[in-house]
Design a protein that fits this description.
Distance between the termini: 58 Å
Structural class: mainly alpha
Mean pLDDT: 76
Strand order of the largest sheet: 1-2
Low-confidence stretches: 1-55
Number of strands: 2
Helix content: 55-70%
Strand content: 5-15%
Largest sheet: 2 strands, antiparallel
Radius of gyration: 18 Å
Number of helices: 5
Order of helices and strands: EEHHHHH
Length: 185
């Protein structure tokens, strides 16, 4: 059995029960292992010319819980911070685990650990938070509807946009670093 990240509602009235991200605690629970047929990890399709999906989500409930979280984020955008970054990381990791791809989820967790310090330096604006929520909602809705082609396009657009933003911010930081070094010299 592979683990999946599951959101559990916190008891009502707890000090962190905000109706937003803080209203849930997260735990790792077992889900059935992925199918044994070979599957392309990116497109979730069996090798060959057929375009039919080879796998289905093993844990639709996990995706539904993430959808619920991101709908609340859209309705009540949180302040930028570590909690929002963690929620974004959980979303992507949960989708991989819900599809039964624990190896790719582990690899993504490693990437998250490496880029988290950089993300902490560049907190998202309200517009970026809204875009993140819309992207996550659309992706989860497409997955739950079984529309994997549209889900893939949505995911690729989301990742491309995020990557472009990070690269722009990294270039700016590098320019500022060079300027600071020139001033010191």
């Amino acid at each position: 059995m592979s683990p999946v990240v599951v959101a559990h509602p916190r008891p009502s009235g707890s000090p962190t029960d905000t109706g937003e991200l803080g209203a849930y605690t997260y735990a790792t629970e077992p889900v059935p292992a992925a199918p044994t047929a070979p599957v392309d990890a990116i497109t979730a399709r069996a090798p060959g010319p057929a375009s039919r999906p080879a796998v289905t989500l093993h844990d639709m409930g996990a995706v539904e819980r993430e959808l619920d979280i991101w709908r609340r984020v859209r309705e009540h955008p949180p302040e930028p911070g570590a909690e929002l970054i963690a929620a974004d990381e959980r979303f992507h990791t949960t989708l991989l685990l819900a599809a039964g791809n624990s190896a790719l989820a582990d690899a993504l967790s490693t990437v998250h650990a490496r880029v988290r310090p950089v993300r902490a330096l560049d907190m998202p604006t309200p517009g970026r938070i809204a875009a993140m929520a819309e992207d996550h909602i659309a992706l989860a809705e497409h997955l739950l509807a079984g529309d994997l082609d549209t889900a893939l396009r949505t995911l690729l657009a989301h990742l491309t946009s995020s990557r472009a933003h990070v690269l722009t911010r990294a270039r700016r930081a590098l320019e500022l670093t060079k300027l600071a070094q020139a001033v010191r010299e």
